[in-house]
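Hey, sorry to bother you again with one of my protein questions. I've been puzzling over a protein and I'd love to understand its fold better. Take your time with it, there's no hurry, and the full record follows here:
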Amino acid sequence: MKIKKYVLLGAATLAFAIINVNHVQAATVPQSSQQVSDNSLSQNDISEIDQYVNVKNNEFVLNIPENTNISVNKIRLAQQQIKNINNGIKSNNLLIDPETKEIVQYNPYTMFIQGAFSIRPGLQAKWFWWGQRSYYSSNAAVAYTVNKYSHYNDVLGLISHVTKYKIATFGSLYYKGLAMQLQNYNNTHRNKRIYMDINWAYVPSFGTW
């Protein structure tokens, strides 16, 4: 698969260049995992479907039993997304950890190591079939990301420095909104380690670990 676009995802924002997507101009960040179109999977959909995704022969495989209540449309979307990811993995000689379902080895141009890119102390990013998860183990790491996202030129500079690619991005309002949500979530969980997920619909969701 010839990669024409690079997706800017999560706190790492370092171009998870595996899947071809259409560039969308976004002025704001959706406030919940359900604010997606009928052509996208929400984070709740992903959580429901992920239990039926396994790894076989270095590919993601979806096997959903007939007795589930998952809609045909959601199954179709998941199948297409997994197909695109598998094509990108094959084309870029990547590997999947069959136990964790992490994409754990990247070509040298993206500078990722064993599926977790360590941007700074307390901040790591991991990639899965559904998108990216960024792990924060310190308030300082959250503050670092919020600062980068609040200053659009810093986001672009970080991407350029790390990936050496010209990245298509959403725009400053998207990242400022993302920074606000991340900051607000961390403010209510300052004594806990948090994570931020961003799926292929570019919708963030948060949790603790």
